[in-house]
Amino acid sequence: MSTYEKKIRELVQDEALANEILYVLNNEIAASESNSISAFAASNCNFFLKTQTYKNDGKTEITFSESGKNVTGYSSEELNQMPAGFNSLIVKEDILKFKKFQTELKENSDNNFTTINYRIKTKDGKVIWLREIFSRTFDSAGKLKKVESALFNITDFIELESNLVKLQEQYKQKNAAKDRFISIVSHDLRSPFTSLLGFSEILLKESDLPEEERREYLEYIYDAAKSELELINDLLDWSRLQTGKIKIQSQRINLKSAVSSAISILTGNAIRKDVEIKTDIPDKLFVLADERLFHESVKNLIANSIKFTPRGKKIYVSGNKFKEGVIELVIRDEGIGIPEKEQHKIFRLDEKFTLDGTEGEKGSGLGLALVKEIIDKHNGKIWFYSKENEGTEFHITLPEAKNKILIVEDDTESRRIIRRLVLKYLADSDIIEASNGYEALTQTERELPALLITDHEMPLMNGKQLIEAFQKKTAKNIPVIIISGKLDQELKKEYTQMGVAEILTKPIDQDLLNETLKRLFLKSE
Description:
The protein is an alpha/beta fold and 525 residues long. The chain has helices spanning 3-11, 15-43, 68-72, 76-81, 92-107, 155-205, 211-243, 255-272, 291-307, 367-377, 412-425, 437-443, 463-473, 489-497, 510-524; strands at residues 47-54, 60-64, 113-121, 127-138, 144-153, 250-254, 276-280, 286-290, 314-323, 326-333, 381-387, 391-399, 404-408, 430-434, 451-454, 480-484, 502-505. Strand 9 and strand 10 (326-333) form a beta hairpin. Residues 39-43 have low confidence and may be disordered.
């Protein structure tokens, strides 16, 4: 007995009168609840009601709430006029399941509430998922009289569930790959110690070894130690990239300069093998990349080419525009190539593939996987073509970098004037604007500017503090132009010592600004 029913019986002593009052109240509450549900259904585009009433003459009357049209696209009248009624919407693959469910619904009265998920095709041709929750009413003889159901569009939930299952499977595969990777790496980390300990022991115990043999053993030890160090360095870099401990600090890099820098480190290796490296990269190609990581990637690829290229052969390094906004770097060698059956392992960590170089050079086997990780982090792509005894050709694409210039000025009008003057001289530049130092640092978190133009006197952080913050943020000094109306000789001296490219006073000398911009960008190009 509910609380309100108990209270009414206490207040109304006459049992017949109390029963009559309760009967009226219960009917009113039921009607109110029904009206509320119907109103909710009518206003909801993902939910509607369906009622099936079974008549004594064997006929079935089916009604739908108005919101059924929002979900299916069909009105109640249109649905009832279809050959199989609402069942006409159910997709072919689910109709058998649904009919079997309907049979059980009529015959089994054990569970009053039951649920089924199935798909229907809406009026506009879309296939959606419905969840139908049934409530049944039986007469005293156990015969089904009415089925009331609520139907929910659960397409988004099904898709989410499917995506989660796929994600779970991907994580399983990644974990399995990592397990295989750890197994491979643990073996590779142990292997060099056989040479290190074995030859070291011989050198320690056999003092009368001939000098030639002693030198040979030392070379074995040196090679094993070098391979071990290379493997550990590659492992550390890969791990830091995976965990986010290495932050990508993208900036505008001259492609020709970056490649030349990488080649200069490897020149000794190339000369020793009599391998010629030829480059063909236009002067004014710029990529958006982290300078250290990009340098590491290019060095790794060219070092690989030298390793697998026989004496007297050539390596070709070229760069060009791949498409609008994308730069391509190609490294092609005349080396021994990669066997076709092994090519799928090249960028993988769980299926390590290593080859000795043409003169027995060793490698960690992780270099190319590391390069791919770096290029992926830069939103770039890497792929290759290779044929045994003909050579290998690696392609890298990276975003093209425009002149990104950061203007930091708290006065809106002054900022607008500086912007207009900069674009007058460097029309293809991307301008970033900030009203204070903190805003400037936030806006350049991912990508460093090619040039910083800042006022000295600003709220929260002055020009000196901003430059110091940028110098802590990156090892590379960003060119800086100071524009200010109030600078004494002491401040100018301090700015000069900080490496500021130019100090301009307000009002701005347009010719001097133009000359400064030309000098800075011609130098970088």
